[in-house]
């Protein structure tokens, strides 16, 4: 087997070794259950350092291609795979009377799609399978809303579909990719599936920390940086215009690194749209989602950025779904231009801000300090995640565990609470959350840190 692996490796970088072994696994030359040679044996055979092989093995492990069994060795994985982080969120507390784990918008704050559908009617929107992927009227409105002038715009079936397709264009097996730490778990799942080596960079209230980003770019030479410019999930952080300029200055020294922005909260975010694309338009792909603001069932997000990336996404979709429903695009166009719908979205944005503020203030009265942030979620520090979730489950309350959000070293135990679903009873809920956050070993008297490491 050692000679088989050595013969397949042309590029002796960690990425090249991982890609070669991946090809052997896919071809069946390394069947499931096969024990791989030791890291030192492979390194000796290839004439590289054990660190290089370890990094390759790490990429393969994250992608689910191989598994380590302690002292027994490392083996080619079978058909089963590690459970997605996203699934761990969904299983937080099944059957809870009050589910605050979901991260979804309040249905009652969404605009009425039925009215928009009636206004749109049939419309004769599709005449050919090769029509433009975006309705001309919608593209005009999207361009007017975009935080910088994009070379191309297309529409996909939601933000995750957009991120999946953009990542497939930019990221190759074994590439390093910078993400926020903490980050959105499905984004981490997507990168794991691609076999990327994820590098987590901490955030503060203004977004990614520039010095830490510069260090990661220098050390790992990543293919891309994925970030959330506002209403960061889970912390609620929002990238300021000053921070965007600082990050652009850092990135300017690394011309091969692309930036992908996931503006998932869209019109229900209180902060204005800010983008690194204002400074680096030829290297920034911006994803604007309408699920949380206008309706999850619309399944629509817009992708704008360099033609090389956006055209590749649109062309690849021709071999699959072809395009996102032009009927639903027409509904979105109606919602973006109807005065009544625009007013309803503005009301929803204000109401989410009110709910978030009320809960943060109530928590502070009970001695639990959480970043106010933006969007529909709160990121709460707790002494013990498992104990906190058990306590809350005993009260019929489900929250999301913090562990699946971390892309690197944990900055302490947390839970994510969907504050946007809390309409009233803020003080009562805050009392329960504060009690759950307390250190169980201290008899409920101790509190978790007011400002955990990594949040400055």
From TrEMBL:
GO molecular function: DNA binding; DNA-binding transcription factor activity; pyridoxal phosphate binding
InterPro entries found in the cross-reference section: Aminotransferase_I/II_large, HTH_trans_reg/aminotransferase, PyrdxlP-dep_Trfase, PyrdxlP-dep_Trfase_major, Tscrpt_reg_HTH_GntR, WH-like_DNA-bd_sf, WH_DNA-bd_sf
Transcription as UniProt keyword: yes
Domain of life: Bacteria
SMART domains: HTH_GNTR (SM00345)
Classification via CDD domains: AAT_like, WHTH_GntR
Keyword Transcription tagged: yes
Pfam families, sorted: Aminotran_1_2, GntR
Domain HTH gntR-type: 11-79
Keywords from the named record: DNA-binding, Pyridoxal phosphate, Transcription, Transcription regulation
SUPFAM superfamilies from the UniProt entry: PLP-dependent transferases (SSF53383), Winged helix' DNA-binding domain (SSF46785)
Family listed: In the C-terminal section; belongs to the class-I pyridoxal-phosphate-dependent aminotransferase family.
PANTHER family the UniProt entry points to: HTH-TYPE TRANSCRIPTIONAL REGULATORY PROTEIN GABR (PTHR46577), TRANSCRIPTIONAL REGULATORY PROTEIN (PTHR46577:SF2)
UniProt-recorded name of the protein: GntR family transcriptional regulator
Lineage summary: Bacteria, Bacillati, Actinomycetota, Actinomycetes, Micromonosporales
């Amino acid at each position: 087997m050692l000679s088989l692996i050595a013969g397949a490796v042309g590029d002796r970088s960690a990425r090249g070794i991982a890609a070669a072994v991946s090809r052997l696994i896919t071809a069946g030359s390394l069947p499931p259950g096969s024990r791989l040679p030791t890291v030192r044996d492979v390194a000796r055979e290839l004439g590289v350092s054990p660190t290089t092989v370890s990094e390759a093995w790490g990429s393969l492990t994250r992608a689910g291609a191989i598994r380590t069994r302690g002292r027994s060795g490392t083996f080619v994985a079978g058909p089963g795979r590690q459970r997605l982080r996203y699934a761990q969120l969904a299983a937080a507390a099944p059957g809870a009377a009050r589910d605050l784990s979901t991260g979804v918008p309040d249905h009652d704050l969404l605009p009425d799609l039925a009215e928009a559908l009636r206004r749109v009617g049939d419309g004769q929107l599709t005449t050919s399978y090769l029509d433009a992927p975006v309705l001309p009227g919608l593209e005009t409105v999207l361009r007017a809303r975009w935080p910088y002038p994009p070379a191309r715009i297309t529409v996909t079936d939601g933000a995750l579909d957009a991120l999946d397709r953009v990542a497939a264009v930019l990221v190759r097996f074994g590439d390093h990719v910078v993400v926020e730490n903490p980050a959105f778990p499905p984004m981490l799942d997507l990168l794991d599936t691609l076999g990327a080596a994820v590098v987590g960079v901490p955030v503060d209230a203004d977004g990614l920390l520039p010095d830490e980003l510069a260090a990661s770019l220098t050390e790992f030479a990543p293919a891309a940086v994925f970030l959330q410019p506002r209403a960061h999930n889970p912390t609620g952080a929002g990238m300021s215009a000053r921070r965007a300029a600082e990050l652009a200055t850092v990135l300017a020294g690394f011309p091969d690194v692309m930036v992908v922005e996931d503006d998932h909260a869209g019109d229900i975010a209180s902060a204005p749209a800010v983008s690194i694309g204002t400074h680096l338009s030829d290297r920034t792909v911006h994803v604007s989602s309408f699920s949380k603001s206008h309706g999850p069932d619309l399944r629509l997000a817009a992708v704008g950025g360099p033609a090389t990336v956006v055209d590749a996404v649109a062309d690849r979709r021709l071999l699959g779904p072809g395009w996102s429903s032009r009927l639903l695009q027409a509904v979105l166009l109606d919602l973006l231009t109807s005065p009544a719908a625009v007013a309803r979205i503005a009301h929803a944005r204000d109401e989410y801000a009110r709910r978030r503020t009320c809960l943060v203030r109530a928590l502070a009265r009970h001695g639990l300090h959480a970043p106010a942030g933006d969007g529909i979620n709160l990121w709460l520090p707790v002494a013990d995640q498992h104990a906190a979730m058990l306590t809350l489950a005993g009260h019929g309350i489900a929250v999301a565990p913090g562990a699946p959000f971390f892309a690197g070293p944990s900055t302490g135990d947390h839970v994510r609470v969907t504050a946007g679903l809390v309409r009233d009873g803020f003080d009562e809920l805050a009392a329960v959350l504060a009690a759950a956050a307390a250190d169980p070993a201290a008899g409920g008297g101790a509190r978790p840190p007011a400002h955990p490491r990594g949040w400055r």
